[in-house]
Each structure stands twice: as structure tokens, then as C-alpha cells.
Amino acid sequence: MHDPAHLAALAAVHRRGSFELAAAALHVTPSAISQRLKALEERIGTLLIRRGTPCTATDAGLRLIRHHDEIVLLEQALAAELPQISHGLSHGPATLRIAVNADSLATWVIPALAATQGFLYDIVIDDQDVSQDWLRRGEVAAAVTAHPGPLQGCDTLPLGRLRYRATASPAYVARWMPDGPTAPALSRAPALTFSDKDRLQHLWVDRLTGGQASRAGFPGHRLASSQGFVDACLAGLGWGLNPEPLVSAHIAAGRLIDLAPDQPLDTALHWQFARLTAPALAPLTRAMQQAARAVLLHPQGSPHP
Where do the structural domains in the chain lie, given as residue ranges? Predict the structure, then answer.
């Protein structure tokens, strides 16, 4: 049995990136963090943290961090179910680390988190196409992902489809796309891209133009903010794929134009979580499903019943 304080120190160093920040998070001195990590490495007999800027866990360190997270979640669930034996178990809310894409966070995830008591959340924001990697590495307990699985040791539940609309301001359309989103226009008109991982604009352009504009390439602004995408479209900075819940009112009011109303882009989302901690995550899982039903489309494209 490993000392929980040693495991907590390991997790904090990896997630905060330094001994000093880990010490601040755990309310101890950097020296105490260093001693705990050294004792754990000596006991395991292998390097657990790569010292650097930032400090990162080795594969063995990541496995121990996952073990630590699982213990904390399971102990909290046990203490809730059997308060008479809770003495000596972890007290207070457990920190739950999950991976979520920014657009889900901006449209439907927050109500689910707020509806679930007993957790402190550590949200990793990453694209839905790669969020599963965080779960595979054991760095999160659950993820909203575009991948249905299967992933070893995990369960997957379909959430629905987040619909995107290609939008731009009327002035932008008049300047850059007077004849609509044609391949020549899209190859010149500045687009909005969330990050290098964001392929939504490319997928939509490929579908609309048969790959013509995508092969030629198109200019774009990088803007890693869901609300920033909407604001940039409203201001005429560029065109972009925005979640329908964030832009439907702007489209209805004429502040934004849907570039191709018959060509929305739907992204299927799934809730994937470690099977071992599924009982502890059950309240959040129910809340995620309920919140998704209120906003997302049914997996087949129709609204949830």
C-alpha cells in the first residue's frame, strides 16, 4: 500500500508542472514535496517524474497517478454509502479531472457539473477528436469525446450530436462572399480556427466544395475561444463553424448569416469513463446525459424526445 500523501505529491507535481506549484496546491513546502516524491521513487524503484519545465510524469508515474485518482473517488463513494466507516477515509469533496471540448463546455456541460454535488472539478479542455487520449493515458477519469470506443477498461455512452452552423456577419458576406460560399470565395475569405487540432472548418469546406477549396487551402485566424468565435463572426473578423445553440438567436435576428442553411455539420459526442470508478461517477454520468438531452440532437439527427 502506497502512502496517499506520496501519491498526491506525485499527481500534483505532474499536473501543476513544478514542485513549487505542487507545494502550494497541497499546502506544504517544496521540500516536503521533494521528500515525498523521492521516497515514492525509492520504493517503486524507478523514475516517476521527469524534472524539467514543466515537470511531467513518466509512464510509471502516470499509472500511479491514475491509481491515486481511483482510490480517492472510490473512498469518497464508500464514505457516502457507509458513513459509519468513513473514519480514516478521505474527507471533503474529491477533485474529479475530466476532459471536455470547449464547445460542449460553452453550451451544455456546465449545468451538468453544477447539478452534481460532492466534486471539485479539474477540467482539461481539448478537442473532441483527441480528448480520448487523456483517458487512455489515465490522466482523466472521464471524457467527452467524438470516439465511441471501445477503449480498454472504459465504458461509453452516446450523448447526441452537437450541430454546427457556418456563420458570418452580413458585412463580411457582402465583402468576401457576395455570390455565396463558393470554392473561390472560401479560398480567399479569412476563416476562424480554434487550434491546429480543429478540423471542423476543413470538413465543412470539403463537403461543400468537394475538396476544391480545402485542397487549395484558405487563410484563417487562430482563436481558442468558443465565445470568441461568435464575437469574431459578429464583428466581421472571419467566418467559422459555431455551435447552433450559441448562434441561433443571432441568425434569427439577422446579426449573423448562415452561409449554407442546408449544410450544417453535426459532431457525435460520447461520454467515456473508467469502468472501475463508474459507480462513483454515476451521479455525474446521469447529469451529463440529462444536460446533453436538453441541447444536443439525437444520435440519428432528430431532437431528443
Answer: 1-90, 162-266
